[in-house]
Model the fold of this input.
Amino acid sequence: MANRDIRSALLLLCASGKIYTGVNVDSCGYGPCAEPITIGTAISNGERVFKKVVAVFGGDGKIMSPCGNCRQLLLDYAPNIGVILPHDGKVMKTTIKEIFPDPYSNFG
Done:
């Protein structure tokens, strides 16, 4: 049984014009967010270029911000992706690099 009350969905627009969706999967441990599920689905369908992403909260459908792990994932797979976020009660359009300017990197 899930121990979090965070339900999220993700819409991912690809360069092909296709839109992929996914939802988070909760478990008593800590399930994956919607981002890796959606990106995995898109990749398994041959997509490689991602244009824009928006996450929504499943409880009320409001736009939500990706967590830190998902920001890193988005940057790894789509360094130029546009991100739609909530900001001061409005919708903000930005890029993953703007909201995650200092990501993990391998210095090797």
About this structure: The first helix runs from residue 34 to 44. The helical segments are 34-44, 68-77, 96-99. Strands lie at 8-14, 19-23, 50-57, 63-64, 82-87, 90-95. The mean pLDDT is 89.
